[in-house]
Amino acid sequence: MDLSVPPDITFVVLTAITLVAAIMALQAKELIYGAISLAVSFIGIAGFFVSLDAPYLAMLQIAVYVGAVVVLILFTIMLVSREEVDKDLTGETGESAAGLWLAGLLAVSIAGIAALAGPNLPSTAPVGNLPISQLGPVLAGSYPVPLLILALLLSGALLGALVLAKVDR
Amino acid sequence: MPTLVSYIIVSAALLGVGIYGLSVKRNAIRILFAVELIVNAANLNFVAFARYMNPPTVSGQVIVFYSIAAAAMEAAVGLALILVAFRLNSTIDLRKLNKLKG
Predict the structure, then answer these.
(1) Which of B5, B15, B21 sits opposite A106 (nearest CB)?
(2) Could you tell me which chain B residue has the CA closest to the CA of A148?
(3) Interface ipTM
(4) pLDDT for residue A1
(5) Is residue B98 part of a domain?
(6) How many angstroms separate the Cα of A139 from the Cα of each of A142, A155, B57, B65, B83?
(7) Which positions in chain A touch B73 (Cβ < 8 Å)?
(8) CB contact under 8 A, A89 and B27
(9) What is the pLDDT at residue A90?
(10) C-beta separation of B27 from B93 below 8 A
(11) Nearest 5°: CA angle at A140, between A136 and A143?
(12) Residue A119 with chain B: CB contacts under 8 Å
């Protein structure tokens, strides 16, 4: 990884972008801004993929998540009536606090376990990068059956979505 | 390059945001946002662990490849379901979609 800025600053900036955009996606007053924040969060994750020597996945992340999923969400928001989309962001305040405790405890405990195991985890990535050309043989050579099942699953899901959304006249 | 632990902490934080949305929100589309965030947290972990293996492996990236395809599919079906639910009940408030309750 050869970036002009030191890598740690890249990491901090990516973390800030991803997490702030994720919180905005859930808390934005209007759902359409939430969807756009979600796209920003996905772009932050794509940045993490680039920093982890996975440029192909970063490209896929932007093409599929930002290009397809978020656009699909935007279309759905436009098809659902506006009053319905923007109301009832959260439950009662007690519920909201309980959810915050649940999420905080879960995240802190996972992070704590990781930090405790820290000395046993590798602190520096092994040298040597992963060429994209390795991905194809592993994808189609080592895991051919999951690939075929995925293709069937995708066509089944596409048909299912069509059948669900079709309007009978 | 940051340590593996820092990637795990970012991923745990993203998971926490997703769980918060999943447990508190009532708007069906926002629940879908939360699910996508959780899937992304898992993907980040897969890629980070595979990169820090010695020697680094692409297997984690292959799993994330499948995961991204499955998540896109899930979003398509989920949004179609939300559209149908809205058409039938003219609401997407999950507390009001309780027709299956006896």
Answers:
(1) B15
(2) B66
(3) 0.92
(4) 42
(5) no
(6) 6, 19, 12, 9, 35
(7) 153-154, 157-158
(8) yes
(9) 62
(10) yes
(11) 120
(12) none
Domain that holds residue B59: 4-89
Supply the mean pLDDT for chain A: 85
Instruction: Work out the pLDDT band at A135, boundaries 50, 70, 90.
Output: confident
Q: What DSSP character marks residue A131? A: -
Angle at B3 between CA B1 and CA B7, to 5 degrees: 100
**A67: DSSP letter:** I
Model confidence over A4-30: pLDDT tens digits? Answer: 555 588 899 999 999 999 999 998 888
| A4 token code pair | 């002009």
* Three-state secondary-structure class, residue B93: strand
Interface list for B 5-34 with A (CB within 8 A): 5-10, 12-21, 23-27, 29-30, 32-34
What would the DSSP string read from start to end of A32-43?
Answer: HHHHHHHHHHHH
Query: In the structure encoding, which two tokens stand for residue A9, read together?
Result: 């600053």
Residue B48 belongs to some domain of the structure: yes
Residues A141-154 pLDDT 10s:
888 898 999 999 99
The count of structural domains within chain B is 1
Six token digits for residue A127: 């040298």
pTM for this prediction: 0.89
Residue type, A110: I
Amino acid at A50: V
Condensed to tens digits (0 to 9), the pLDDT of residues A46-77 reads 999 998 888 899 999 999 999 999 999 999 99
